[in-house]
Amino acid sequence: MTTRKIAIYGKGGIGKSTTTSNLSAALAQRGCKVMQIGCDPKADSTKNLVGGDRIPTVLDQLRAKGNKLTLEDVVFPGWNGVLCVEAGGPTPGVGCAGRGIITAFQKLQELHAFDIYQPDVVLYDVLGDVVCGGFAMPIRDGYAREVYIVSSGEMMSLYAASNIATAIRNFGSRGYAKLKGVILNSKNIPDEEAIVRKALEEIGTDLTCIIPRSTAIQEAEAEGKTVFQAGTRPEMMQVYSDLADRILAAGEGEYT
Ligand code: ADP
Ligand code: MG
Question: How confident is the model over 94-136, as pLDDT tens digits?
C-alpha cells in the first residue's frame, strides 16, 4: 500500500494540533498505522496522544546524541499505536525555526523512518504563519502530497490560509503537494461559515468539513487525551471520524 502523506497547515493557535491528533486517533481506530510529525517549534503537536506529556524532539535528541541518534530516540508510540514525532525548534534567539525542520526531516530520512515503520498515513502538523523555506519543506520534495489548511472565520487565519495556498501554487511544478481543502475549526464568530466560504472562493479551494467549537476538546486535553481516548463525547468523535473518511476518500487516486 502507498503511504498517504498529508500536511495540515494553519496559523498558530488555530487548532492544527488538536485537529491533527484527533484525526490521527480517528485513523488509528480505522486500523491505519499513522505517523504524526509535529513541525512547529512549540513541539506539542502529539501531546494529546501521549498522555499530555511532551516527547523529546528530533532536534533536541540530535543535539544530545549526535551521530548515535536512533529512531527509538525520536519516534514514540502513542495512543492506539500512533507513531509520534516532534521536529522541534532552535534555541530561542539563536537558530532559525525553518532550518530546524529541514534538519529534522533529513535526519528522519537518513534513519529510514518511513521504510522501517511503513505507516499507512503520515500527517505533518505544520505552523503556517510564515511559509519560508523550512515551513514549506513538507510541501516540497514529495514529503506531503496532500495539504489541508485549518482556519476559522477570523481574518488572520484566513490570511494565513491564503498565503499557504499561494505557496503551494508557487511550488506547483517542483513539488507534488496539492491543496485539497480547508477545515473550518469554528471560533463561533458571527456568520463564520459564510465568511469562510467566501474566502475559499477567492482562494480557489473547498470546505472539507466544519468542526464545531466544543468543550469536549478542552475536557479531553486536560487529561492529555484526544476525544477518542477520552471516549465520553461520541458526537465529537463522529466529527473527526467523518473528517478522516473524507480525507481518505479525497486522496484516492492521488498517488497513482
Ligand atoms: P495550534 O496547533 O494550531 O497552535 P492547538 O491545536 O494547540 O493550536 O489549539 C489551541 C487551543 O485551542 C487548544 O487549547 C485547544 O484546546 C483549543 N481548541 C482547538 N480546537 C478547538 C475546538 N474545536 N473547540 C474548542 N477548543 C478548541
Ligand atoms: Mg500546534
Answer: 778 888 889 899 999 999 999 999 999 999 999 998 888 888 8
Query: DSSP label at 66?
Result: G
212 has pLDDT over 70: yes
pLDDT digits (tens, 9 = 90+) for 84-93: 999 998 887 7
Does 16 sit in the ligand 1 pocket, CB within 6 Å? yes
Atom of ligand 1 nearest to the CA of 13: 4
Q: Distance between CA 79 and CA 232 in Å, rounded? A: 16
**Cβ of 188 below 6 Å from ligand 1:** no
- Write b or e for each residue in 1-12: b if 16 or more Cβ atoms lie within 10 A of its Cβ, otherwise e: eebbbbbbbbbe
Point out the catalytic residue in the list 5, 33, 40, 42. Answer: 42
- Which DSSP symbol is given to 188? -
